Write the structure tokens for this entry.
Amino acid sequence: MRKTQQLTAIIEREEKGYVSLCPELDIASQGDTIEEARSNLVEALELFFETADPSEIQDRLITEVFITRLEVSVG
């Protein structure tokens, strides 16, 4: 039985497509749509977990990621 893990996906519009990033592992992917970018990121993460040495996973994994909105003065 495979276990699952909750990770964060940040998806940003970039020119004609979207870039997706998992900040916990610093792994990114892309796609033409939001869903494609998300799906491609899931695939990249699954491939990483299948092939990476457990010590590499532990070294790269950031367990505390905080995402918030900021209000700043401009101009």
